[in-house]
Structure formats: C-alpha cells, structure tokens
C-alpha cells in the first residue's frame, strides 16, 4: 500500500503525453472489482520514465466494478490504478485482457489477479521480493552490529550472499522463461551485465581500466532499446541517469561521444530516442561540471535544430536555439572571440587578442556585485603572483554607470587591463560608425551575449592561442591551474565544477544591443 500524495498530484495535474496523437484501438480490456467501493471514479496512470502521468478515467458502478480500454503495443508498460484517497497499485499493461480484485486501500498483498498471466508473475514477484526484504532485515542488523567482530559477521555475510543469489536466480528464471515478455525485459534491464575477466596477459595496472571500458561498452546489453515500451518504467530513467552521471566520465568530449553512440542505438525507436535525447540535453544544460555546455550546444544543433526532435514545439525550439546561441561563442576548446573596448580614459580602444599573454584571463565584473567585491581583490593577488610569467588579465567593467567602476578600479589599484563600454557608444548610430571605422566589432559591443553574461563575475581562461581552456572558476582554481600550466603540465579539468555566482545585481546592458 502506498500513500501517494505527490504521485497523485502528478496524476491529476499532468496531461496525457501525446494527447493529440492518433492512437490505435486495443481489443483488450483492463477491468476490476474494488470491494466496498462504488459510485466513484478511478484513474489509470502510466509511467514515462520516473514520472506518473494521468492516462484515463473510469466510473466504478454501484457493484464496485470498473473497466478501461486496453492499450496498443507501443503504449504498454508499467501503469498505476489510482483509487480515491489517494491510493494506488502498480501493474503491467500488456496485450492481454487484465482483471483484478482489490480493496480500496490498494494493498498489493490483497490483490487477486483474475486474468493476465503477466500480472500473475508480476504480483508473485512482488510477494517474493517483500518476503526477501523481511528476511534481509536481521542479516543487515548483524552486519551493522559494531559489537561483533569481522569473524562473527562472516556467517551473516554468507547468508546475505545466499539471499542475493536467490533473488538473482528468481529474476533470471522469469526472464529465461519468456525473454520477449515485457516483465522479463523490465527485470532484465535492472540486472547487472556480466563482465568477462581481463585478458591474462594484460599488465595488472591495465586490467582495471580494461574492465571499466568493457563495462561501459556493455552497459546497455540488458536493455532492449529497440522496444518502444522500454521507457515506460521508472527503472529506465534510473538506468539512464546512472549511465550519464556515474558511468560515463564527466568530460565533455567523452560525454558527447558516448551520448551520440547511445542515441544511435535507438534508431527505429522514437520513444527511446526522445527520452534519451531530452534527458542528455537537460543534464548537459543544467550541469555544474565545467565546459559541459559544449555537450548541450552540440545536442541542440544535431537533434533539435536539425529537425529530428519532432516533438518540440516552435517556441521550444526557439528557446533552445537562443540558449545555445548564448553559449556557442565561448565554449571550451574554441578560440575566444576578440573584445575591443575603451580603457578607463574612454579614449583608447584596447584589444584582448593584441594584449594576450601566455595565459589570458577574461573577467567580466561589476563594482556593485557582492561576489565581485570579494573575488576581484583575490584575483588581483593571483595576477601579481603570475604576471611576470606571462599571465594577463583583461577585465571588463559591466556596471550600468561607469562612476562606481572607475572608483573601485582606483581604490583597489587594479593595475591590469581595465575596459568598459559607455552609453554613448552603444547607440545604434555610434556603434555602426565605430564598427565601420574598424575601432571595435559587433561581438565586442555585444559582449554580454557573446560571452553569456547572465551573472557576474564571469571568468574565462585562455592559452597563448586564445583557446578557452577553463571557465566559471574561482581565484583558487585559477592559481592552481597556473601553477600547473606554467610548470609545463597538462591541465586536468575532469569533473571540475563551475563556480556558481548569483547576486542581487543582475548584469544589465547600458543601452540597446548594438546593431539592433
């Protein structure tokens, strides 16, 4: 029995997916009797990944009976029968007639499967698992007993292994009896793939890597990505999320390669293609791992803007294009576009590219930004420490008015390159003239969009070729990077998280966007 307030909210508030899609009819029915319930409504909900969505409504008559139309093949999967309360029980919808006897509390231990061989196996499996969970409790208590020695715990570990093997054997027995049954496919999806031993002639220090690569390559072997129904179970989401966040290294280039390989496996299965593409795009866009936005932009270009994401609305596609466009000029591994802005005298135009160092740091900041007030003095110390080694800082003031920026520059003695724009140069007429004269560029005047300035400070580190090698990092990370790089070592940014700054002062433009 489950008290599912949150799930009920999802069931009631979320519309059926693909509600306008043309649906085929099913010759099967899903019906049941609820003892003690009459003259009310019951709801059918389906899983799509980890979420439950409203699917259909039926009326319970004065004898406690209800009936739903069955589902076509592509809509089969794990469903929930939701009673008032709310209470619900999960079951399998497959291409066969299904009938239950149940009580209003939806207690799965009281449910009787009148018709449906698949659901008889499903509820037998639930009962088996619940029994094993009860048996496991005293074993785990023994293992977690701090008063017992390792030797005293050995029989408990042995019992646990026997119990796990019994569960494993039970599931494989169901799978092997009928591999094409949807229950079998769902159970198999949750089973660990069997990794072969590394080649005997491989050096010991290479065996672990060999086994990891083999595991990664075999990870999806137990999941039937050709079956459209496979996404209609919570386990599919967990399997995918585990793969994208734990199995695949959080390195943008590696992630992109593995995601594209996975998506290629879904050819002919629009449901798996949609789910995986959406989830990978979402995770890459919201990731805190440095440079993961490179994956986001690539996925948007290759799958959404190419017309392959047929489910996306025009508004959704426009929003995704806008989000990708804000990031595409400043992705890790790309050559940084030049910025040419006025110095503190408002007379001299300073180019970042022409004043590059062995390593160049672009920092976009505001004098009234709380994080900037703390970070800029710290960055100044890093600059003084490394400037004799070829480290250059090109600092762009992003204040709405320049007076506060100039005051901060003078008071903190910021002796690196300080530039900003002015309201005067941001008028359309002035911008057009300055660009035509070659004094600056449209990308420079629109640096806020060119460099994805949604909060400050915004930081990018470039090498001597102006290739972006790090971004959104704090002064301690910059100092460590420079020590590493100047010592001639390769920069390792694996799984490095962005410094996430949020401030009450959102960056604002001093005028209209240049050229608009």
Notes on the protein architecture:
- With 516 residues, the chain is α+β, with helices and mostly antiparallel strands.
- The chain has helices at residues 5-13, 117-143, 150-177, 182-189, 204-218, 234-247, 252-264, 270-286, 293-304, 314-328, 370-386, 402-411, 428-436, 442-445, 447-450, 475-486; strands at residues 29-34, 40-48, 51-60, 65-69, 77-83, 87-93, 98-102, 112-115, 340-343, 349-351, 359-365, 391-397, 417-420, 458-462, 468-471.
- The strands form three sheets. It has a seven-stranded mixed sheet. A four-stranded mixed sheet has the order 4-1-7-8, with helices on one face.
- A hairpin with a 5-residue loop joins strand 14 and strand 15 (468-471).
- The relative contact order is 0.07.
- Mean pLDDT is 90; it is low at 1-21 and 500-512.
Layout of helices and strands:
Layout: H1 5-13, E1 29-34, E2 40-48, E3 51-60, E4 65-69, E5 77-83, E6 87-93, E7 98-102, E8 112-115, H2 117-143, H3 150-177, H4 182-189, H5 204-218, H6 234-247, H7 252-264, H8 270-286, H9 293-304, H10 314-328, E9 340-343, E10 349-351, E11 359-365, H11 370-386, E12 391-397, H12 402-411, E13 417-420, H13 428-436, H14 442-445, H15 447-450, E14 458-462, E15 468-471, H16 475-486
Helix pairs in contact: 2-3, 3-4, 7-8, 7-9, 8-9, 9-10, 11-16
């Amino acid at each position: 029995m489950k008290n599912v307030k949150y799930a009920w909210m999802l069931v009631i508030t979320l519309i059926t997916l693909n509600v306008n899609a043309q649906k085929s009819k099913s010759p099967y029915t899903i019906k049941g009797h609820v003892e003690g319930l009459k003259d009310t409504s019951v709801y059918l909900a389906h899983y799509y990944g980890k979420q439950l969505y409203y699917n259909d409504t039926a009326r319970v008559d004065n004898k406690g009976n209800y009936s739903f139309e069955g589902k076509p093949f592509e809509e089969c999967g794990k469903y929930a029968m939701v009673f008032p309360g709310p209470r619900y029980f999960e079951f399998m919808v497959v291409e066969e007639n299904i009938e239950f006897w149940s009580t209003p509390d939806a207690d799965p231990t009281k449910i009787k499967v009148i018709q449906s061989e698949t659901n008889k196996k499903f509820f037998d499996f639930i009962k088996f698992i619940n029994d094993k969970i009860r048996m496991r409790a005293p074993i785990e208590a023994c293992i977690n007993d701090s008063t017992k020695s390792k030797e005293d715990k050995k029989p408990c570990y042995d019992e646990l292994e026997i119990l796990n093997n019994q569960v494993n054997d039970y599931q494989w027995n169901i799978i092997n009896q009928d591999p094409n049954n949807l229950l079998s496919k769902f159970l198999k999806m949750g089973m660990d793939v069997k990794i072969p031993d590394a080649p005997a002639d491989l050096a010991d220090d290479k065996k672990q890597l060999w086994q990891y690569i083999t595991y990664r390559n075999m990870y999806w072997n137990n999941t039937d990505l050709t079956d459209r129904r496979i996404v209609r179970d919570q386990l599919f989401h967990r399997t995918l999320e585990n793969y994208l966040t734990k199995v695949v290294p959080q390195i943008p280039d590696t992630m992109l390669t593995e995601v594209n390989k996975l998506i290629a496996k879904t050819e002919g299965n629009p449901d798996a293609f949609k789910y995986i593409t959406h989830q990978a795009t979402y995770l890459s866009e919201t990731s805190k791992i440095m440079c993961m936005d490179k994956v986001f932009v690539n996925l948007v270009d290759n799958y959404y803007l190419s017309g392959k994401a047929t489910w996306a609305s025009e508004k959704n596609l426009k929003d995704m294009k806008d989000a990708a466009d804000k990031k595409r000029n400043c992705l890790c591994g790309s050559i940084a576009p030049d910025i040419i802005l006025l110095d503190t005298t408002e007379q001299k135009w300073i180019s970042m590219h022409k004043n590059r160092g062995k390593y160049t740091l672009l920092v976009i900041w505001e004098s009234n930004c709380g994080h900037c007030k703390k970070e800029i003095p710290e960055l100044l110390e890093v600059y003084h420490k490394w400037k004799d080694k070829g480290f250059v800082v090109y600092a762009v003031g992003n204040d709405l008015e320049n007076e506060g920026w100039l005051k901060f520059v003078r008071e903190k003695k910021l002796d690196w390159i300080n530039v900003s724009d002015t309201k005067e140069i941001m008028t359309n007429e002035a911008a057009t003239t300055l660009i035509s004269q070659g004094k600056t560029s449209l990308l420079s005047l629109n640096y806020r969009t060119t460099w994805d300035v949604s909060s400050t400070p915004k930081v990018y580190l470039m090498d001597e070729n102006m290739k972006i090698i790090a971004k959104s990092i704090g002064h301690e990370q910059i100092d460590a990077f420079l020590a590493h790089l100047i010592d001639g070592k390769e920069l390792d940014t694996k799984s490095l998280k962005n410094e996430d700054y949020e401030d009450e002062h959102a960056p604002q433009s001093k005028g209209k966007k240049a050229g608009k």
